[in-house]
Write a structure and sequence with these properties.
single chain; mainly alpha; Multidrug-efflux Transporter Regulator, Chain: A, Domain 2; three-stranded antiparallel sheet
Length: about 140
Amino acid sequence: MVVNKSKDAFRTIAEVADELGIATHVLRFWETKFPQIQPMKRNGGRRYYRPDDVELVRKIKYYLYDKRYTIEGVQKVLKEKGLKTILGEEIQKDFFAESLEQVELSEKNKELLIEISSELKALSTSLNNTLEQIK
């Protein structure tokens, strides 16, 4: 059960599976059958489901388990009705759009960011060189 998370918080595949009473392998399988399910994937392939993804999975489960549709039947429903009809108007919202507005930086902060960027590039080069020596 998901505890202490905002309804807008991203969920792991295990949290979604637990919340909906579905095995994680079933969710992974549904991702292959329903391209509309598009959880974010982080390094290592770890999935993070947006609230709209969870709602879509909930609807798919409803059609498959409660209404007894086939996978092809649910695919047809999604294609004919569209996600907006099934989930409402605000689907697959970019949760980071609000934070993408222009931010004014002081000269000092700009210089600091340039310095940090240079340091990160140097560290990356150093790590790559070390990896090459190990090989």
